[in-house]
Amino acid sequence: MSFVVLTIVFTSCKNKEPKQDLMTAESNQDYYKEMYRPQFHFSPEQMWMNDPNGLVYHKGIYHLFYQYHPESTVWGPMHWGHATSADLIHWEHKPIALYPDEHGLIFSGSAVLDAKNSSGFGTAENPPLVAIFTYHDMEAEKAGKINYQTQGIAYSLDNGDTWTKYQANPVIKNPGVKDFRDPKVFWHQASQSWILTLVAGDHAEFYSSKNLLDWQKVGEFGKDNGAHGGVWECPDLLSFKVDGTDEVKWALLISINPGAPNGGSGTQYFVGDFDGSTFTTDQQGNRWIDWGTDNYAGVTFSNVPGEKPIFIGWMSNWAYAGETPTEKWRSAMTLPRTLSLKKVGDQYELFNYPVDGLNKIIESGEPKDIKVQGKSIESMPLNGSNQSEIRFKTASSDFSLHFKNGFGEQLTLTMDGQRQIFLLDRKLAGKTGFNERFAQTTQQMPITNLPLDVYEVRMLLDWSSLEVFINGGEYVMTAQIFPNQVFDRFEVVNNKSEPLMLNDFRMGSIKSIW
Ligand code: FRU
Prior knowledge:
Blueprint: H1 3-15, H2 25-30, E1 47-58, E2 61-69, E3 79-85, E4 92-98, E5 105-113, E6 129-136, H3 138-142, E7 149-156, E8 164-165, E9 180-188, E10 193-200, E11 204-209, E12 216-221, E13 231-241, E14 248-257, E15 266-274, E16 279-280, E17 296-300, E18 310-314, E19 329-330, E20 337-344, E21 347-354, E22 362-364, E23 368-372, E24 377-381, E25 387-394, E26 398-404, E27 410-416, E28 421-425, E29 443-446, E30 455-462, E31 465-470, E32 475-480, E33 489-494, E34 500-510
Parallel strand pairs: 1-19
Antiparallel strand pairs: 1-2, 2-3, 3-4, 5-6, 6-7, 7-8, 9-10, 10-11, 11-12, 13-14, 14-15, 15-16, 17-18, 18-20, 20-21, 22-34, 23-34, 24-33, 25-30, 25-34, 26-27, 26-33, 27-28, 28-29, 30-31, 31-32
Beta-D-fructofuranose binds near residues 78 and 233.
């Protein structure tokens, strides 16, 4: 691509409504149409992106900041990229929000509205947005030190457009811990304090502050809890009203890399109680937000208007993130998902399900009931092709679903009631050879609690990803895929001899948000 064309494209993106004389009709149509470009997920215009950062809602706008390397499609010196949205579905790209400085690169972190101006950065009339992030000092790391990660802050008085770093950074120094990062802050009503959760290698630590500037360590959690196959990263501590009750419980999200159930990176959670300094849980076993390989470092928005938290994850995996076959940009975010805490039997479970706003870009077909005779296949064209929603209700737990194309490629999903697992196999679903770990094994998710009467299966396919939500988000799998041709056929396979009923079966096409 020539320099001139690049200039035109960038002008168009920034202004969103390009001057027509600068744009050819063709370049307009080409915007966000590269091979594998997600059409209804957020991805950066160009270059490398990883974790979502600083998710905050303020004055009618959702802010998405993200780990960004503006000079390459592989990870490198981290900045905070920035995008905004009024509806969590359509995004507008903004200039880079935070650049590395003398303290280091800008790693992951969070942002809050300091509504009472406790930091003093703003005024009562114009309270500041405050970002809290990790500084990673590359020079110190190269020099063999271990104390190279500290926590810094910055503030914005113009709703996130421009940011000023606090002159007395860092606000939390390194206590001699190699992996000491990813601060997530919230206002804790009961103790009238800001609480910051960060990770320190194999556990989480809690800090408390009255002004976002002076922090005191008040507790830690996790050395002996949960999965420990890798480093703990990107914590998020949040409270819930258990669905349908007034009971309040807390959930702590912890990303871990490696050590996820299907290899590489994944996000576990703990449900318990938090008293302002200590988090306790009696949860047994490991719990995962998403069993697919491609949902990592996810956290929730602060200051959201609704009752329920909204979560976004990075739709990739450190096992192969730098090698996926896209050219201009790398990686996308998951769909924004509403989190709910439900009591299932005597266990608390975290459900995640796409935000309702997604429905407005889905043109759904007429619902129908499909009956597949024993051990046979129902095949249908995939309308919406690689921008599809497919959803249905069923009571069966023995079927497979295939996404197919004319190249003979196939993405296979199987509900195996006998073994109580759901499987996602992308071995034959297109390009896999860029990294041997990408499709080495079939991804598995234990399904132990399916309602016997009826449950929903909902799938969202967007060129290079599939998100599967079973039973309203109780069981979730997110996976990247790189088919060489559009999937144009969908098959339902009945693996039992009794007829398989899919009720309220709907296939929809999803509009592009770009
Ligand atoms: C998680 C992570 C964070 C870190 C950031 C660096 O994916 O490793 O722990 O802050 O990415 O880009």
